[in-house]
Amino acid sequence: xxxxxxxxxxxxxxxxxxxxxxxxxxxxxxxxxxxxxxxxxxxxxxxxxxxxxxxxxxxxxxxxxxxxxxxxxxxxxxxxxxxxxxxxxxxxxxxxxxxxxxxxxxxxxxxxxxxxxxxxxxxxxxxxxxxxxxxxxxxxxxxxxxxxxxxxxxxxxxxxxxxxxxxxxxxxxxxxxxxxxxxxxxxxxxxxxxxxxxxxxxxxxxxxxxxxxxxxxxxxxxxxxxxxxxxxxxxxxxxxxxxxxxxxxxxxxxxxxxxxxxxxxxxxxxxxxxxxxxxxxxxxxxxxxxxxxxxxxxxxxxxxxxxxxxxxxxxxxxxxxxxxxxxxxxxxxxxxxxxxxxxxxxxxxxxxxxxxxxxxxxxxxxxxxxxxxxxxxxxxxxxxxxxxxxxxxxxxxxxxxxxxxxxxxxxxxxxxxxxxxxxxxxxxxx
Length: 430
Hints:
By secondary structure, the protein is α/β, with parallel strands linked by helices. It is 48% helix and 14% strand. It has helices at 64-78, 80-84, 95-99, 123-134, 147-153, 169-181, 194-203, 228-238, 245-252, 256-267, 281-288, 290-302, 310-331, 336-345, 348-352, 356-360, 367-375, 378-391, 405-427; strands at residues 4-7, 10-13, 26-37, 42-48, 88-93, 111-115, 138-141, 159-163, 185-189, 207-209, 217-223. Strand 3 and strand 4 (42-48) form a beta hairpin. Helix 10 (256-267) crosses helix 11 (281-288). It is elongated.
């Protein structure tokens, strides 16, 4: 089992090793602490970074951008719906986020970007915050003690966060009044006792956060890490706004980890809040949108982790490619793209060492895709069952789709050759 430790503002989970010493599926954790209104209904959750102390001795200290990338990477991997439901996410932002060099591929309508008191607001930060606001993100100023902090920032603000342990009563009254005049929500931090809760409520604080209401709690999950070369290739393509979507799809489909994370990202909802299920990678790409794709790849490049073994990746790619080839040549060419995603998704349980039910819970798959993978229903379900049996050395049982042995053998060989080539490329080998 991986080792965990809970620090002051987060929880770190060390990467588990397989018995052969290779790094496989990653356990990921996001710490979160709820923010309540005065009726103790939850407004949202602050997503908490791993502290440097949690990362173990001898670890190179992370930069602010890397810490931001880490928590966003883990949040997307776990799934926004599982992490916060329909509540807001308060995400601490590094200066790179505020200036636009580190995009945030989280749904803007749910995400509040927290601007730390340590961030000095030069012109590029203020301009970046205005861009984030125009994109639909809300902004919160952290560490505010008086109204001049808000005026000095000179940007769009939806919330201010005040540490009640560090502010004086006259300043608090004036601050709350000024914020309410400008329709800015005031969040009191450090609410640790009943007296403090009542005191903040009487002062007019809109929201409260602290140990009295809830300790930070970890939300665990598992993910795979995309191959480094695939990340770089995809980032280069995404710099070109004229790049055909087919080229982006071609890169993603070659890497099981990217396929998984793309579906997780699509499950977080599109930038405009639209949520729908998908049947193909192309539909997931369109749903996520170009800007959030760019943000996703930027986060991956900054916060890269380990990945599954070459053997596991080859197996997943072979299964997906074989399903696609058989659908196109022997069954129905129109379902080739769906066949590929069914084959790929059916491998996620093995790659993540989880049940498929748990893996698929937060992925935005159409019902027939989900039923094909979980229950073998419909033509896609029969196809993946036959492909699985054939690849596991049970050719006599691969009879559900009416495919002959020659078709299965030919598709298996072609899929294996393609998968070995893709795995070699992902590993950076010659």
